[in-house]
Amino acid sequence: MRATTSAATCEADLARSLEALARLPAAAEKILGLALHEGSTARHIAAACASDPELSGRILRLASSPVLGCRQPVGQLLQAAVVLGMNRIRNLVLAAHIVEALRLPAGALDGGRFFRHAFAVASLARALGQAARSRQSEDMYLAGLLHDVGIAVFLAAAPEAYAASLERVRSGGAVLEDEERELFGIDHAEAGCRLASRWPVDRRVATVIRFHAGIGPGGAGPPPECREAVEVLVVAELVCRHHGWGLVRELEPLPPDFVPPAWLPLSRGAVLDLFGAAATAADEVRRVAGVPR
Ligand SMILES: [Fe+2]
Ligand SMILES: [Fe+2]
C-alpha cells in the first residue's frame, strides 16, 4: 500500500532538508570559495583550514595516508595543502560536511551503505579520469561523491514514504525516478544538482550530477563540456554495482555488451580491475571523513 504522505508535504520537507544541508560551516565556505579562485595559494588554504581544528586533523590524516602514496606523516597544514592540492581538500571538506549533516535513518538505506557507494563511485571516477589524463579528474571525484546525494536528502526529508518507494524499486515493481517524481516532484539527480548549485563549487559539477544516469530532464543528453565526466560516472556506477557496491540494489552484474567509451584508453577488463584500488582508497577517505562504521 502507498504511504499516505502527500506530495505537497514531501516537497516542503525536501525544501527544509535542502536548506539545512546547503548551510556550510564557516571554514568550509571559505575553503570552497578559495578553491574556485585561481589566485588562491596553498598558504591561503592552510590559513583557512587552521580555523577549524577538526577539519585540520582530517586534512593532516588524509595527507599522511600511505594509501595516497605518502611515505611519511605530514604534520603541517601548509605541507598538507601542497601534498593534497586545493581540489582534494575541497573534496574532503564537502565529504566531511555531508557525513556530518546527513542523518540517515537505519533501515531501508543506512549511512554505511550510502557512503560506501558514494566514496567508491568517486574514487573510481577519479581513477578513470586519471587513466584518460583528464584535467577534470578531481571534479569527477566530487561529482561521484555527490551524484546520489539527492537519494539521501529524500530519505532524510520523508523517511517512511521514501523508504517504501525504495522497497518497491528493490522488489522490482517500480522505477526509482517515477517514485521520486510522484513524491517530491523531482528525481534524485535534480535534487542533488539543486543542492550542489547552492555551494560555491564549479557549476559543471552540479550539471554532471543532474545528468549522472547519462540522461537528464526530458531525456536530454548532457551538455558537451560535461559529457566525459557523465560517461565516467556511468561507468563507475556500473562497475561498483558489478562488485556489489551498489546503492538501491547492491549487486548487478555488468551487462554482457558493456564496453567503455571509446575515448577512455581502457578495455572492459582493465576498467573492472581498477575497482580494487579504488575501493581501498574509498575506505581510507571514508575513515578520514568520519563515516561511522
Ligand atoms: Fe549511484
Ligand atoms: Fe543515481
Topology readout:
Elements: H1 7-22, H2 26-36, H3 42-50, H4 53-63, H5 77-84, H6 86-101, H7 111-131, H8 137-146, H9 149-157, H10 159-170, H11 176-184, H12 188-197, H13 203-210, H14 227-242, H15 268-289
One fe (ii) ion binds next to helix 7.
Can you characterise this structure?
This protein has 293 residues and is mostly helical. It has a domain at 15-22 and 106-289: Hypothetical protein af1432. It contains 15 helices and no strands. The mean pLDDT is 91. Bound molecules: fe (ii) ion (2 copies). One fe (ii) ion is lined by residues 147-148, 188, 212-213.
What would you say about this model in short?
The protein has helices at 7-22, 26-36, 42-50, 53-63, 77-84, 86-101, 111-131, 137-146, 149-157, 159-170, 176-184, 188-197, 203-210, 227-242, 268-289.
